[in-house]
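Example (one chain per record):
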Amino acid sequence: METPSKGGAAAVVRLVRPKQWTKNLLVFAAILFSAKLTDPTAMLHAVGAFLAMSFASSATYIFNDVADREKDRLHPRKRSRPIASGEVSVTLGIFLGVVLLVLAACIAISVNAWVLAMIGFYLLIQVAYNGWLKQMAIADVFVIASGFVLRAALGAQAISVTISGWLLFCTGALSLMLGFAKRREEFISQAEDGALTRSSLANYNRPSLDVMVAMFGGVAVMSYWIYCLDSPTAKHYPSLITTAPFVTYGVSRYLLEVFVNNEGGEPADILLRDRHIIVSVLGFVAAALISLSGKPIPIIQD
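Predicted structure:
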C-alpha cells in the first residue's frame, strides 16, 4: 500500500534537489567566455537553457528516486530521501517529474530546436545510466562526465556560438575528477559499513580511485591553462590567463578536501561550504569579467 504524502513543501523541495542546480551553471560558460554577458538576447537564451536543464535534471532525480525507492530504504543515507521515507508519495513524485519535463521541453523549444534536442539527448543518457551503465565501473563515471560536457555545449548552442575544444576537454576532466572523487567517498564509507550498495564499486579499489581523482584533476588544470594560452578567445583576450590561478587553487583545495578529509560524496556541498573554493569561484568570475572586458593588462602581451 502506498504511503501518503506527508512531508509538505519542504519534502517536495528536497525531492526536486535545487541545490544540484549548481551543476547547471556550466551552461553560462559560453556566454561568459564569448563576452556576451551584456547582450540581453543571449542572456535570455542562456537563462532559458539553464532552467530547461535544471528542470530536466530534477525530473531525472525524481524518477530515479521512484525506481530505486526499495533499495534506498536499505541505504544508511538514502533512506531519508522523500520518496524512500514516504514523505512524498510515489504518485505525487511521478506527477512532479512529468510537470518538470513538460516545463523543460517548453522552455527549451522557446530557445531553439537544438536546445530541445540536446535536452532530449541528456535524458536518454540518464535512462541508459540508470538502466545499466551505472553498474559498470569506469563507464559509470564517464557517462556522468558526459552530462557536464553536454551542459557546456548546451550553453554554446543556446546563444549560437562555438566553444573551444580545450574548454570542453577541461570540463570533461573536471567532471571525471568529481565523479571518481564521489566513487572514492562511497567506496570508503560503504567499505567501513561492510557492504557495497552500488554494484560498480566492487570493481574499484582505493588506490585506483586515488590515482584517477589526482590524474583527472591534473588534466583539468593543464587543459585550462592551455585554453588560456592557445584558444581563439585567449588570443583575443590575452589577460584571460589571470583566471588560471583561481582554477588551479580551487582544484587544489578540492583535492585537499578529498584526500585529507575524505570528502567528495556531494561536490555541491563542498562548493557551498568551503570558503576557499567560494573565494576561488568569485575570484575566477571577477578575473574573467575584467579580462573579457577588453581592458589590457600592461605586463601581459599577445
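Caption: Residues 256 and 262 are 9 Å apart (CA to CA).
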